[in-house]
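Thread: quick sanity check before group meeting

JM: Hey all, I'm pulling together slides for Thursday and realized we never actually wrote out the predicted structure for the chain we discussed last week. Dropping the sequence here so it's in one place. If anyone has concerns about the input, flag it before I start.
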Amino acid sequence: MIKDKRNLYTKSRLPLVSYLWYINMSSNKAHSKLANSQTRIRLTREERYQQLTAIAWQIIRNEGTEALTLGRLAEKASVTKPVVYDHFGTRSGLLAALYIEFDNRQTIIMDTAIQQSEPILEKKAAVIASSYINCVLFQGREIPSIIAALAGSPELEKIKREYAKIFVEKCRVILVPYTQSGKMTAASLWAMLGAAETLSYAAANGDITATQAEIELSAIIIAMVERSL
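JM (edit): ok, ran it. Output follows.
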């Protein structure tokens, strides 16, 4: 509404310049929305997988393992459910993927540290202990809850045991050169793994410090090797 010469309010068309500015701004907003949509679509499958697993860790950290469902993950990632189902299939598949990611990270950290350590039993034991404890602490309290969830499914428990066997064998290869007999019993290696899990979870829950967990686990490993002399 504008005043005319008679000081009366009448309807008026929007000035041409203002109208063109309005059209331009509207077009820019639409283009921006389209660009954002296209950006999301341009993620490669591997990039989308990495995005989804990162958000899954966040959900567990902030809301707990029980809150992690494929639907919740899709909502937090701002993607449709079929995208999440295509990557993981089921909730069990998602949990397994997270555990495998954790184990792979643990393997890389440990392998690198072992290669850089001195060929002395005490050094090797310290590296194994610190690598295991620190990797669990890196994920905070999420790892104990994921492992607890894995134990509830035969399929997931099988995955956990397979990776545990790989870890035990890796430790055997690293430590057996420091024994006189050249042998280590499976029982002692599995006992070491049990101690590693218990100590790391205690550290993650704040019952003991990370340093205390590392020192104790290192001592257990050294004692295990010395019994094999």
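AS: nice. The chain is about 75% helix and 0% strand. Residues 111 and 131 are 9 Å apart (CA to CA).
JM: adding both to the slides.
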